[in-house]
Amino acid sequence: MIECTNYDEEAKARILANHLYFNGVPKKHIAAIVKDQGYREIIDHDNYNPRLIESMTSRIEIGALKPKEYLAAFLARLDDPSRLWEHIYEEQLSEASRHVLLALAAADAPARLSRLEQDFEALFGKRGREFGWTQRPNDFERSLNELEGNFLRIQDGGGQRIVEWHNPSVLDFLESWLRRHKRDTEALLDSASRFDQIETLTNTVDVLAPREEQAGEIRPAEAMLADAIGRTCVNMTWRQLPTAIRLAKRFSEGPVRDRVLVAARKLFESADIEVEDIPLAIAAIEQMQTCGWIDQTQVASWGDRLKFLLLCLDEGSFDQLEDFVPLAEWARKNRSRLTAEEFKAVQERSSRVVKSRMDVWFSPNRESIWVEMKESVENLQELLSMDFSQEIEAIEKRIEAAEKPESSSDEVGQTIQPPSASTVDSIFEALIQ
Description:
The protein has 433 residues and is mainly alpha-helical. It has 23 helices and 3 strands.
């Protein structure tokens, strides 16, 4: 199946024209689309999709619309296609296909096809046993054939097949659906095997916790959410911890908060914290300092561990200068917890990091990081009250030299050729002749 993202303007125009003609759209309605090249607003729309085009050229959709109302109604459907997605989801898709979409909603697309299949099998298998559905070995493959081209897009990436939404409006519809169908959300939690599924249902598809204005309420799914966190926190990462804390803040005292604290303790008391994880750990500590329900004595002890790490790291630990900036910012904010000698040690380490890495950062093919490098050095200068003016000037000279355009004798006398004339207009003019 050809994907909409691969359609050029002419192909999109022919699809629209064919549906207008073969679906028997009245001539006056077609003329309203052709007038002032209104069809271009349709074929250039971000939500252009053959399903939507087919829907809006059907007699049922046109109904009592007057010709002058047709283009506006067409564009309104493209702006908000959720009603069409819901109709297809409920009336036209197989049970297996619906569960592929639900699994992808929790998988943070784009997702690996192999991982999506595992998530689908876990979800559909549990619900099949619950409702007595007949399952077939090729349910997943059959569902992909049904969904690809309208709901999903499958591409090759890095030697793996990757699945993503065909259009963002599909995910918008599924978020709305999950808000209204709590049993589907609970089924996703019950089958979750990774914390990133819970993370997606918190951040991308926000359906797990009460809204801020209802933070004191406990939803019926809290026990199931707590069980899912407890089951998946074994693979929780530093990047995911802030999401877990933010999710816990939206519940009252209870099992969700308890499970999140267990996960935080496991991370902070682990044998090693990698250099790249330290900024994330700092962010988590600062986040927990605002949580009255967390023992601040415990948080302070975790902060002391970070201080120890900060003072022990050597300059060779940092390939990217921006990795050091959060540590410097933490040192400034917590200066009262550092002795004068400790803060001076941080300043000296910062100076060595900058100076020792300059030759590496100025090596060929690393021009793309110079602007970020300048910003990072300026941040360190301000955070730690240091003088990096010479280093900043050196970076600015490199940036200026890199931005000078190189002239080429081959370019002299060349002219830019205009694109060839489009046949789009003639396609629609033929419809009203």
